[in-house]
Amino acid sequence: MRSSVSVILSTPPPVTTMSYPDYTTSPHHHQTLLVLVRQVGSQLKSRSFHKLYERISRVGHVKVNDSNGSQRPVWVTYRRDYPIENNDWGDFQTHRRVLGIITIGQVGSQSDLNDICKQHESLKGLNPDGTMYEAASQGPSRSTSPDPSGTPDPGGAPQTPVPAINGHAHVKKVSAGSTDRDSGVYETVGGEEKPTDSDSHSEGAADLKIDTNHVNGSDSGSESTSEVGCCEETKADSPRDSAVESMLDTSHSSINSSASQASKVCLHPPSNFKTRALFYPTGDHAVNIESQLQEFVSSLFWVLESKRLDKSQEKLERPPLLCAPFERKDFIGLDMDSRTNKKRCAGRLRKQLADLTLQAGLPVEAIVQYSHAADTLRHCNDWLWLAACFEGLCAASVVMLYPNLRRSVGLQRYSSLGVGGHQGGAGGVLNRSRNGSINTNSLPSGLEPTIVKQTSKHCLSPDDIVEKYREAIVHYSKYRNAGVVETEASIKAVHVLIEQRRYLMAAEFLSNVVFINLQLSDEEKIARFSALADLYHQVGFQRKASFFRRVAAMRCVAPQNQQPDWGQCYRLLLQTLDGYKVCLDPLEFRKDGSQGWPSLQIQILQELVGTSRRMGQNALCTRHQAFLVSAMLPHLKDPERQETALMLESLSARSGSGPAPLVVQETGIIIPPVNFLNIPTCRRVRIVSPAGGRKAEKKSSLIPEDDNGPFIFSPFSSLSNNNDRKSQGKVDFDWVEGDVCEVCLELENPMPFELKITTMMLITEEVQFESWTSTIVLKNERGLQSVTLRGRPQGSGQLQITGYSSTVMGVTSNCRFKFLPHLRTPQYTINVVPALPMIQILSGNSSTGSLGAEQAVGEECGSLHLSLSAGETHECSVVLHNVSSQPVEELAITLESKMDKDMLHQVFQYSRENLQAQLPIPPGGRASLTLYVYAACDFLAPGRLDESLETTSLLSGSEPPSLVSGGPPSLPSRQSVATSSTRAAPRARRADSSASLLSSRSGSSMRSGSSSSTQAATSSVRTRTTAPTPGCSNRTLEANLLVKYSGGAGMSAEYCRSTQVGVSVEVTPSLQVTRWDVLPAELPHQCYVVLDLLNCATHEMDLHYTPTKHILIEAGDSCRVPVPVDRCPLATLTEDGRESESGWGWSEVLGGHVASLVELRWTLGPNDTPGRASLAGITFPPSTHDLITMAPIHWDVQVDGQEVVGGTENSGVVGRPLQLGVGITNTSGAPLPPLSLRITAFQDHQNGHLNYRLDAKMTTIGATKLTTPQLKEGEEFQHCCGLVFFTAGVFKVEVTCSPAAVAAQTSFYENITPAHQHAWKFAPPLEITVTDA
């Protein structure tokens, strides 16, 4: 590659006759007519000329009807500049000869018109020997009538030319009144003005001139009947005109000339001016320029066709010798009459005729002519013209086989560089090169498929075309002065091979172009390298294309160049980036991964930095150096990283680099910003959630429940929703307006030195956000380093955090999360709610519960700790301090704990009304709350129920005598061991007749426990506990005091805040109930609950177990106390509905009844700390239910009509009957089955002996045993009998009611206590004192 370039840059050969190659040439140019379009005069602006040139260039294809009525396609190539040396090669290849001239100028007076006509005549010197076929055309000359100030109008575009009928046509504009509105072109013949005949043609001079003169008259030229093709024609001119071609805008100035003033202006071309002149007022009126050009091209065709016919019919004995310009001296002195030279002359004439035939639109005939000429020239060894024949033969075949080849995008220099993405990739280049020739089988306009099918057999095959081009190039290479022709032939072959998609072979032909040595100037060499780069770009050799562009760039600033052009060097270097896989957009460059060659990329970027610095563009230099550091960082070693970083800091100190694009003023090239996405490297982003007390949450009552319809919930859908939520960056918490918010970044320092980051801040969208800047220094160590960025939202809505901004090494970067390679979330969306108040919770209680200095408590400051004895109640003061600028308008306090609700409400209590009365809390204000804490505890000792509920009685013979004497005897007690409320039902116990409340035993058995039972029911027994008692250990009660509050704008949006304080209560043991039992009481509606109590505290306890009785218990001592309790109504049991076969279903009900009536109060310690213990959870076995429950019947006993009440004295007389009435009322709340009523009289001798044998002392009148009928609810049964006493004394009558034998097993009694027979007595027994008469 470099050797090829050295050939080009070496000492040039002797001067050739052709100026420089046309790098835009293609095989289709062989069939085109060359027309020169020039600007004349100094009044026409360049922009206006370029605008007109663009309109003229669009008329590149015209269909003309020949003499046989067939349509022929005529193609035209327009050039703005053409070297006269190249025109001399018109005999060798006719498409190189200029066949027409169009001049465009602007005139304001007759003298201006005369000057323009002279300049037009001077252009005819381009063809001094008349080889222009006498069809010179003077281009459109614009003239405008001067305005009152004398300034000519520069606006307006000229109309297209119309061919003149003869060479003596003089055209002028007439007054407004006599203007023909159908034509703007006039011919003066014999002093008479008449419109020109656009259909007439002549072989004489067909000169054409277009002039525009502002008149209030005709605004259009004569229209042509021929058709204008819309084919895209390559309009690129020589390299020296490339800059002019880009100027396409036309400026127009206002015209103030009136119609009367315009009619006075009359312009006449000089009398010796033979060229047709067209005058148009303004560009706005030049509407038929295309049709006029169409007529002009038609005239050129007819002239060309006449020459072709003449040459085809000539029969010359001595044909002239056609020569290339450098061949004339070689034939001096040669014998032209020799047979070889005659064949040479005939072959060259035949070859020229083939060129004319191809230009005339007959490619099939041209192929035949080329073939004959090649056969003739091959025998003469005329290699130069034989090569031209081969080239023409290939061109004619390409016209037939690849008609759309000419429509491909022409080779043009890059006027700007698109830096948004890759435009130079191999795939993109190949696609662009094929856009105009995807369908290579399409037919040219005007030809039928059948004709092409018949004539295509004369064409060369695609392989033959390439082979003929190769032979032609070999023959051209034999001639030193044919280097330009050889170069253009190679370029044409490249175009054909690109069309055939044979890119490797096209590269071989391009390599041949590299080795062709031409005499070129520095500017032309730069254009040559650029053209080679464009061709390699089309072939797909991107790296080689970039290599030649870089060589061209270096040529611009070569040491031997006296005027180095750094701007052009910079532009060419930019164009090399695509080939080296470098895109100046860092985002696109990173997408390609590790493509390209890092060493070459680093070198070209360094050259860009140096070039931009020589240009004086400091900002541009800094931008390229920043891109070098950022993009090539993975390929730089640590010393290189440090060196490039120091250079970047030096450059940025002169001109900093911001995140905005840079525009190069000279070219309009946009250089995208460079953001340091990898310096530092961001590995992780975490949006910090507000602390527990600062979180904002939606009010629970306003949160809609998800309505999933009738479908079953699927956890997979929930997971997918969560994944979508995370991928979109939607966080599951809210920020609050005005609060300080944080974002945590995990950064890594890739540089071998400490990296200083200044002005680092968050980038947000949608919601106004006050982002605070931070200055950070990352240590020179591997690993992640955490950085926290803070800010404050200034409004509410959906805040989007899209990245962060930082300044590193003087370069300010906007690093978006979506562009960071290690992050998957493009942005984070946080809902910012309106401003809410903020509460701080203060407590004036220390850990011991005593008042002290206020201290903050809560989720961030700690919990509230209390230490209480079981059963103790404590008041805790809680202060709510509003530390925000928003008032607290709503406030709600709830308690949360793992305890059940009943237990929670028992332990913690507070007044909601008192707190609500203190609202609203203004900013800086306070509200107080008193929290009552009760150290609740299970005062029943843990244990299990024994298999036998009737073990050793709580009473023993060693117990002290009863403190209360007298009273009726009571029955033996039933023992109960402490059981929890959740104990399982006990096993089936053994029936024990001694446990029955009413027994049918003999009197001796009942008297056995009379005295002791009475003593136990009325006395307290104290014992000393030596063994450790289970349950006497500390426990902790924990709960959270949840405070929800709202106010300000946040309350209107239905948002609130919540904070919570943990309350921990350490409960130390105080009093414990180890065992309990139930005994009957003296009154029928009461019973005694006997409790064994243990003092588990470390201090003496003063226990109050009844309103009037108390006892002192030392630490660790236990005592037994009887507590009178009202019996439980039977209706309470039946309404509860908890039943079981064993009777345990009512144990909890009866236990709750007893617990509600028994409350043990105590004071403890030196401070007499009060407390209370309850029997919550106590249960009783079924054997004790009769003692606790009320009887289902109500007694109504009367003696002689007087109601008997406890303590009433009854008297009688011996021998006189006493009337005894017994009434039973059903109070059970349900129908009562039949009962057995028994009346029994006995005598109590007060010695423990009861005498039931009173047959000799008394008798009864009526039944003493009977069965009652079924009693409905509230129904009463009455029975009367008489008692007659025979002796005086004290008698007692016992009235008993028990279930009848037939109803003993009914469901009513089974539901009550199926294991026992029920009996109800009238207590106390009826006592009658009988006296003698």
Task: Summarize the structure in words.
By secondary structure, the protein is an alpha+beta fold. It folds into seven domains: 32-314, no CATH class; 335-418 and 428-519, no CATH class; 581-674, no CATH class; 681-696 and 726-833, Sandwich (Immunoglobulin-like), CATH 2.60.40; 839-936 and 1035-1066, Immunoglobulins (Immunoglobulin-like), CATH 2.60.40; 952-1030 and 1070-1183, no CATH class; 1191-1331, Immunoglobulins (Immunoglobulin-like, Sandwich), CATH 2.60.40.10. It is built from 32 helices and 53 strands. The strands form twelve sheets. Strands 44, 46, 47, 49, 51, 52 and 53 form a seven-stranded mixed beta sheet that branches. Helix 16 (522-539) runs antiparallel to helix 17. The longest helix is centred in the N-terminal third of the chain and has 25 residues, at 289-313. It is rod-shaped, with a radius of gyration of 61 Å. 42% of the residues are buried. Mean pLDDT is 74; it is low at 1-16, 128-264, 408-447, 701-707, 846-852, 944-1018, 1024-1028 and 1302-1316.
**What summary fits the major beta sheet?**
7 strands, mixed
Structural shape: rod-shaped
The domain tally reads: 7
Total of helices: 32
Low-confidence stretches: 1-16, 128-264, 408-447, 701-707, 846-852, 944-1018, 1024-1028, 1302-1316
Q: What is the radius of gyration computed over CA atoms, rounded to a whole number of angstroms? A: 61 Å
Quickly give the structural class: alpha+beta
Whole-Å distance between the termini?
162 Å
Helical content stands at: 25-40%
| Strand proportion | 25-35%
Number of strands: 53
As an assembly, this protein is: single chain
Q: Mean pLDDT across all residues, rounded?
A: 74
